[in-house]
Queue: 2 jobs
Job 1
Amino acid sequence: MHVLRPLYVVLLLLGIILIARVFIVPKDFGVYERGYTYGWHRAGNAEDWKAVKVQYKGRDYCVACHTVQGQQISTSPHRIIECENCHGPAADHPLSPKKLNIDRSRDLCLRCHTSLSYPGSMRSEIKGTNPDAHNPGIQCVICHHPHQASKPH
Amino acid sequence: MALGFARGVCEIFRPVSLEASATPIRWAFLVDTQKCIGCGFCVKACKLENDIPFNNNVSRTWVERYVLTKEGRTYADSPKEARNGFSSSRIDLGNGKSQNIPGENIDKAFFVPKLCNQCEKPPCVQVCPVGATYQAADGVVLVDRTWCIGCGYCIMACPYGMRFFHPRYHVAEKCNFCYHRISKAMEPACVLACPVGARRIGKLRDSRDPVAKIIETGRVSVHKPEYGTSPQVYFIGMSYEVR
């Protein structure tokens, strides 16, 4: 019956797909704790994400060697800022990167110290300035030491 | 054997067994909009920790600024997702336009950090046609980069707009609470970076966790509960004007 031929083609394609998926679909693909709706995935992916390399190490990692800077900043209002916020992530420093960036630009300081008088926000509590009026174009760190903000440089 | 079959059928019709096996850890986040100063170090830390190209206008997390004037108008902006902080009083209106609101006109103004809510009923997971995105047992919604086909359904489905295409890998991307860090008892990069403690992470159902205590007993709310996704990022100081 020639009219059955398209059916044979469909069944052949279906067969190919069903065989191919045995090889293509990862063995750990299935339904897990969160059920059919939210937990259908390749189980190994969670481990892939856990294995991602950590970049930011935290202050303790920095002051283990950089004790002088750690001591300087500990008495300053800037002690609440993580070292890596301004200097970039430590990653495998001192192996890689060998040196971390020292950003002396105005923009880094103006993130917090552009004076914004916002009632109800802690931003108003930060000592700030109008960047267009206060020495525009000059680096802040020429006069202000970032680790000892209250002392003249 | 008939009993086994009957029990199997009952499993399908008895989803309460899913709830009963709730895992001990469920991650939740606490954002304090009253503390946020708009420094944007969280955004910078997130991008550098999670390999999101810094100068692309996409981020797993961002900070929005809301300025409410005394006439009752609301201005909101997030210049470059706040990756360089808020260093200007001019509100970015888009299309290159900006506006300065004089201080005396401001009724109140605040900053709102935003990140993926890791919803309890995530719509982004429901729409994935291939099973590339899923919710782990501890509540974090993850994306399998090797399996995602880049269709973008999940990006459209998220009602909070948290998902985007990764500019390099061209697959769906979103905040995952720095899963590689929290799995090693470290804090997410944004929590570490925040100088004022506006961002905190905790484990719900852990009786000793101080963040969980605030979420369970404090004056917190979620963003847009009417979406029905049961988000797990809780805000102190969430306001009607927040979009």
Job 2
Amino acid sequence: MLDLAEASSPAPFDPRFIDDRADDELDALPFGVICLDDEGTILRYNLYESRFARLDRNTVIGRNFFAEVAPCTRTEDFEGRFRSFVADGGHGSGLRFDFLFDFKFGAQYVAIELCRAASAPRYYLLVNRTKVIGPRPSFPVELLAAEQAVLAPDESRHGVLRDNLERRFVDAPASLFGALRAACDRLAPESWQLFATEWGVQWGRRAAVDLEASALEKSDLSLRELSMRELASLVAGYLLERGWGLPTFDFGAMVEGVLRVDLERSALAEAAPRRLRADGTPRPELACHLVAGCFSGLLSSIAGRRLAAREVACIAGGAPVCSFVVVAHERRAVIDAAIREGTRGVEPIRAALRRAPRSVESLR
Amino acid sequence: MSASPGERPCPDDEVPDRGSVTRGASKEALDRPAGDFLAAIPWDGPSPNPDTLDGPTFLAWL
């Protein structure tokens, strides 16, 4: 039933074809992407760049990158190279150079790759952060990169809320998920899990971008370079601090290629309807497909291979905690089949995985 | 977390004491880089037992 979910997988990155990438694909990339026209007007701006520059793409798109958004780039080293590249037609293999972005909140060492879209006069800046440091007091204030509050003042009067990294958020009650679930049950009772899982995968990929930025800012390390303990704490904190519940990572079955994640007080499970059998016992509902998808997208991004997470026990179905099993993407069908047959709980699912023949494909 | 318009504490800056969020792995294992740790997990499942494999799987495994 869930085979269609997680069907969208990012293709391997090739800068020559970046113009063909949809915005959601650019948002899953672990480096900044800024698309400019030949005058330097911002046409596209991905999530990673938005996170590090602390600027909302809705605010910067349509503005001139050099004059309005990043005055620190008005140098021969940056804007001069861009102008020469454009004047030359932007053909060839592109340009690479290092630069230091200066923001009010700090400076960022970056490696820039400049390339031209194959079929249109659009130019892409690929921005790899290599090190983040504090503000440089000696840097001229008038050349600092723009701030969100300056480019878009008084946003709160227009119903826009932002956190301290200038990310827009919506302060939504958990009952919103109860309402969403009720709508799903009414309109798509057989397929809403597909939607929720894929939504979660997309969320997980974006969460990985967010956490990658946090890791670099705090320790100059990528997520994969953090210790496993630090990574687990970071991922758990991401969910915990946003009110999704308290996750615990259990590596006890990793020799079987199985990672278990328990989630206490899941917001989704607690918002889900409680349905009872005729004998008064809970029906074995699974309500947290969105979180399962998030684990799939997030852990796949970090592990560098496709993984699939499935909820196998849920508070909404009477379990004390929500439990998820993470396996290689190729093994997810075993779990899905077991769930369809009514199997619930980590141990029965592990048993089903042990019984399943290992596919020839996975041995190659 | 309550929010006042236009301002909210940044979740990433908060470090609440949440205790351990891991179990089932040794301290030494958890100290390893996450990339190495995750790469060492046999995600495709444990190695097959050659005594119980069917023919095609056994040939592929060879």
